[in-house]
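the two lines:
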Amino acid sequence: MNFVSEALNLSKFSTERLEERGILRIAFVKHPFFSDVVDAVRIEKKFGIYEEGTVIVKGKDRLRVFRGFPKIKRILYLESGLKKHFGSTKIALEEKMNGYNVRIGKIGDEIYAITRRGLICPYTTEKAREKIPKDFFEEYPEHMLCCEALGKASPYVPDYYGIEGLEFFLFDIRESKTNKALSIHEKEEIAERYDLRMVNILLKTSAEDIENIKRVLEELNDKSREGVVFKDLEMNLPPLKYTTSFSNCGDLSYAFKNFEEYGRDFMLARIVREAFQTFEFQDNIDNRAYRLGKAILDSAVESIKKVKEGKEVTEELNLTFSSEEVLELFKMHLKLLGITFREIERKKRNDKIEAKFERVMRATTDKIKSLLEGNPW
Amino acid sequence: MNFVSEALNLSKFSTERLEERGILRIAFVKHPFFSDVVDAVRIEKKFGIYEEGTVIVKGKDRLRVFRGFPKIKRILYLESGLKKHFGSTKIALEEKMNGYNVRIGKIGDEIYAITRRGLICPYTTEKAREKIPKDFFEEYPEHMLCCEALGKASPYVPDYYGIEGLEFFLFDIRESKTNKALSIHEKEEIAERYDLRMVNILLKTSAEDIENIKRVLEELNDKSREGVVFKDLEMNLPPLKYTTSFSNCGDLSYAFKNFEEYGRDFMLARIVREAFQTFEFQDNIDNRAYRLGKAILDSAVESIKKVKEGKEVTEELNLTFSSEEVLELFKMHLKLLGITFREIERKKRNDKIEAKFERVMRATTDKIKSLLEGNPW
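prediction for all of em together
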C-alpha cells in the first residue's frame, strides 16, 4: 500500500488505518487483460476530499488518482430549487440518462473503464477500447471522460433506449486527480473534435425561465426519458438533478418486483418525488395516481405469479464478449462485487461470445414462497 | 416494586434488573380519579410468558395482573394460510374493527380501562364506566373484557364508522392473569346476558369454505370495513387476521400524509398485502392500482399543499370530558405517552367539556417546507 500513501500524500500509518477500517479496498481482479495495472485500490467511503469510488492506481509507468464521481444533489421543487442554487447564472439542461456511471482514463498504454464504486470493470473496459478514441488522451493525459454507459448489452442496468450493444454518452471531462471539470463549451468542442457521443444538451437558459424548463421535462417524460442534470455553463457550481415521472415509476416498478431486496427508503424517496412533481406541475392527479399504482402493483403481482408457478424472481443479463478470457474475468469481477449471478447460456456468434446471466432475487422469492404457503408475515 | 415480584413470582433481584433495563415502566398518572390504584407498572417488551402491555396493579384491595393482549398474526394468502393454521377446525370470522384495543377490568370498587401498551387511560376509563355494566365483574371478578374502542370521540384513532362518542365492541373475554379466553359460544352468551355490544360475527365455517370466506371479505371491503379475525370456536388456537383493500389503502393514505413520521416498513407491508390480495382475488388490477395510487398520492400532495399555504401538517382530535379534572389528567396521560398534542379549543356544552387537540406532524412539515424552499433532499 506504499503507492497509496505516496499518491494521496498520507503517512504510512494513516494508510494502514484506512485499510484496517475497510475504507481502502481492492479495485480490480489481477489478470493479464489488465496488464498496465500493477496495483489498484478504491475508496469505499468518502474521507477528506476523496469521494467514494476514488481509485488509486499504480500503473506500469506512473501513479494515478481517479477521483470518484461527485454525488449530484436532487431537488424536488424546481422553481425555488433552481433559483436558490444557481441565482441568475446561465445554466445548461443536460439529459440525465439511465445507465451506469463510468470514468474512462488511460493507464500505461491502454484505456480503462472504472465504474461508480471504483472498480475497474473488464467488460466495460473491453467496450470502451472499442468505442473511445485513444488519441484524446494524447492531448489530455491527466483527464478522464465521465460517461453514462448503456444499451442492450449493459451488465448493470436494463436498456430503456433500444440501443444495441453498449454505448458511452459523455457528460463531463474532468482532471482525474483534482476532479476539476472542463466548462460545457470546452466539452462540446472536444466531443466534436474527437467524435465522442455526448448526452443531449436540451436547453441553455437561466433559472428564471421556469416555464421552458418544465416544458423540457414534460417532453422528456413523454419520450420515456429519465430526467435532467442542471449545470452552470462554467462548471463552477455543483450540478443538480431532477427526474421525470416516467423514471420515478420505473424505479418503483423495479423495486416492487424485488421488494425484499430493495430498501424501503428507496421506495419512499421515489413516491415523495412523484408527489412533489404532481404538486408543481399541476397536471391530472388521477392519471399520475393510476400510473404510480400500476408501477407498484403490476410488478409486485408479477413476482407473486412467477413464484406461484414454481419459478424464481430473477433478473436476466445478455452480454457479448470478444473472448472467453474476458468472459471468465468478468465472472470473477462480479464475484469481487459480491453479486451472485449464474451463467445459464453461452453461444458463439461470428467471432463473439454471447452469454446469458441470471441473478436470482433470493430474498423476494423466499418471502413470497413462504407467504403463498400460508405462513404469517 | 415489591408488589411486582410478588405478583409475577419473581425474585427481587430479577425485578430490579427488569426495571433497570427499562422493561418495567410506570402505567398511570397518579391521581384521585384512579383512587383504587395504589401503584401500577406495565411491561414494555415481552419477557418470559408476559406479553408486551401486561400491567401489574397494586389495587387498594389486592394484587392484579392484566396480561397484554397477544399479537395476532396476519396471513397474506387466505387459501393456504387458513388451512395450514386451522386444518378442519370450525372457525368464526369476526369483524376486525379499526379502533384501539382496550382491556377493561375491575380494580377495587371501580372499572378501569387499559390501552394496548399497558397504560391506564383516564379518558377511556371514564367512558368505560359510562358504558360497561359493573355487574359483569361480580360474576367474573378475575376476567377482563377485551374491546375495540372507537367513535368520533376516540383520542387515538379517527372514526371510520360514523359512531357518536366512544363505543366499546367486545371481541374477547379473558382471564386477566392467564390470558385464557372463553370460547366464542360463552362469549356470545355473556354478551347477550349483560347487554354488551359485540363485534359482528360474520360467518361460522371452516377453512375449506374459501369461496364464502372471500365473499365475506369482499362485502366488508364494499362497506369500507377493515377486515376479519379468524378464530377457532373453542379459542384453543391463536387467531389470525386479514385486512381489506379499503384498510390497506386507508393506512397508506394516513402514512403518506405524514410520510416522515411513518416507518418505511409500515408502508411496504401494506403495499405487499395489497399485491397478494390482488393476486388471490383475481379482480381488476387496474382498479386496484388506481385506488392504491390515489391513496398514496392524494394524501402526500395534500400535505405539500398545506405547507405551501403556510400551514402545518396536523392531526386533530375532538374529545368530550365529564369534568375539567379528567381533561387535565388526560393531558398528563398524553405527556406520559410521549405524544405532544396542543389544546386549541375548550367549550362547555350542557354539563360536558368539549376539547379540541391538535398534533403537529413536525418531521413531515419541516421536510416538506425545506424541499419547497428548494433545498435538496
